[in-house]
Specification:
Layout (H helix, E strand, L loop, with lengths): L1 H8 L4 H9 L1 H9 L7 H10 L15 H20 L10 H9 L16 H4 L2 H21 L3 H10 L3 H26 L2
């Protein structure tokens, strides 16, 4: 039993995790012709909870209960993993990345995320507001503008050979590269 827990606790290589993620597409198709996506759950939750007669939220959200349960399972799985399989040390960060972050005044600590940005104190700095609040707004806007998130487009949409999903995935990758190499260094220099 202990060897199974040790095996589950380690990071899985891409050649195991990738195919497992990819197999969700045919599994959902076989289970009931369902589409995978995470961002649509915010709309489902708003449709279930908001009593207002907003046309965008007036649809049969109950048909998508399985997707809400799927996201609830992701949340529960994360909570159980953090509780039952806690990290035994700091997150392994490549020395070159640690040196680059140190140049921006960001110390890689013992937590999952650098506390100088991802904390309540860090939030109320210009850098923290840009990274967390600005990033959250851009992700939310981009998800809505693209008609879905990376899960829906890059996993489900590409598997179904949907042209809009290819355009969205290329845009996600381009935006990520621009952010990583140009915008993020400028923001972290603040």
């Amino acid at each position: 039993m202990e060897s199974i827990i040790e095996w589950i606790s380690r990071p899985w290589p891409w050649y195991v995790a990738g195919p497992l993620i990819g197999l969700t597409v045919p599994a959902l198709a076989l289970i009931g012709n369902r589409s995978f996506g995470i961002s649509a759950n915010l709309r489902h939750a708003c449709a279930a909870c908001l009593p207002a007669k907003i046309p965008f939220f007036q649809y049969e959200w109950k048909k998508e209960y399985w997707n809400i349960l799927f996201v609830a399972g992701i949340l529960l799985g994360g909570i159980l993993t953090a509780w039952l399989l806690p990290s035994q040390g700091p997150v392994a960060v490549h020395p070159a990345l640690a040196a680059e972050l140190d140049g921006y005044g960001i110390q890689v600590g013992t937590g999952l995320l650098p506390a100088s940005i991802f904390s309540w104190e860090g939030l109320f700095t210009l850098r923290g507001l840009l990274v967390m609040a600005g990033g959250g707004l851009l992700v939310g806007f981009g998800t809505r503008y693209a008609g879905g998130c990376t899960s829906g487009h890059s996993i489900m949409g590409l598997a179904n050979l949907q042209w809009p999903s290819l355009v969205a995935t290329i845009s996600f990758m381009t935006g990520g590269l621009l952010m990583t190499h140009f915008l993020l260094p400028a923001i972290l220099s603040l």
